[in-house]
Amino acid sequence: MAVSQPRVEKDSEDCSLLPLVHDVIKCMDKDKDGQDVHQELMKLKTKIQKAREQISNMPGIDSSPQEQQQQLATLREQVRTKNQLLQKYKSLCMFDVPKAS
Amino acid sequence: MTSHPFVVERDANMATLAEKSTKERLLSVLDDLEVLSRELIEMLALSRSQKLPQPGEDTQILELLVQRDKEFQELMEVAQQQGKVHQEMQVLEKEVEKRDSDIQQLQKQLKEAEHILATAVYQAKEKLKSIEKARKGSISSEEIIKYAHRISASNAVCAPLNWVPGDPRRPYPTDLEMRSGMLGHMANLPSNGMNGHLPGDALAAGRLPDVLTPHYPWQPSDVSVGMLPPHHGNDFGLEPPGHNKENEDDVEAMSTDSSSSSSDSD
Fold first, then answer.
1. Of A89, B44, B131, B253, which has the maximum CB count within 10 A?
2. How many structural domains compose chain B?
């Protein structure tokens, strides 16, 4: 966890679009119709497009967190019930059936 | 100060956004960011080209942009957390599948056990029926023993223990008995085969007079024992058979009679 926490922060910082917007505005102050503004705009556009692709490929976000928690609880309940069933069967009185040779 | 139309529209959709999936919310916020940043840049470009400062509106858009960017980052964190939960759910799903296969295996074993038990119950019921049937038609053991005595008294099932070659008592029908039976009458066989052909069989049938009864020296009857020389009694085992002339004759006669007896039985 100590290792993954900085990574999450880094990801959060990476997904922010404000630095790129700031770069565009800063470039506009220096060169109003120059190539630098277009370049910065392209960077912003590319960043947005990559963010869209990243969001499309992220697993487990097809439902809301509440729905996901409900699904998780349902799965845990299923595992618990099935474990109880198996345990109940194993604790039954068993008979050794001789194999017909 | 009037609020931006974008803000009013977005606030109205906040309730429905909370019910949407994280992916839809992320894409929606990303669209907002794109629109707001474009609007801000265009506004700034226009204001600087026309040298007309429009205080208030650009600030409002900038605040909205910052707010949406913060919301986007928060949603990205939520999405990453959901990714971890998704991994946990996959592990649980695999566990559920494994438990399902275990339960199916046990169900299969139970079916086999049910089949075995059903067969055993069926066989037990059949056995009970047989027992009940036997109880209804029960016969006393004394009666069975009497019947067994009747069968064995005529040597019909087993030769007597002291049987020797030439002894007419035997556990199968004699030729005379066969001829006098129903099969013999049906085949209309001539009954003159008894004339000297099978003296032993005729004797077994008890229809020949004692005069015709052959006497064999090896017969364990009292007469034969009485006719034996004295040394046949106690000294029989002391001398080798080859040194006794009478014993050799007896053996030879025995083998001859034995061969004739076996041929008669055919």
1. B44
2. 1
